[in-house]
Request: fold
Amino acid sequence: MGKWNGLRRKPISRRPSSGQKIELARRSKLKAELIAEFGNRCMTCGSTGDWRGISLSHIIPLSRGGQTTRENCPLECFTCHDKYEKHPERREVNQ
Ligand SMILES: [Zn+2]
Reply:
């Protein structure tokens, strides 16, 4: 962790805003619903049992006006989540 030594801590509270709390609650509820319905399986590549677990992804990122809904949020394995979360434009190209 030596590389963090030079960084100054921001004096801003890290407490989530109420909007973030609502978003997080909505996300965990939707994830639980999808797992109950479809199982612990990646909805993009179909893989199961990745030890890193399954995540809720956003097809249209929140930063681009996407919402946490069934239509916009597939369950994905760590690999797919990581791939598209960093490069959401790849997903748009595929559709
Ligand atoms: Zn996957």
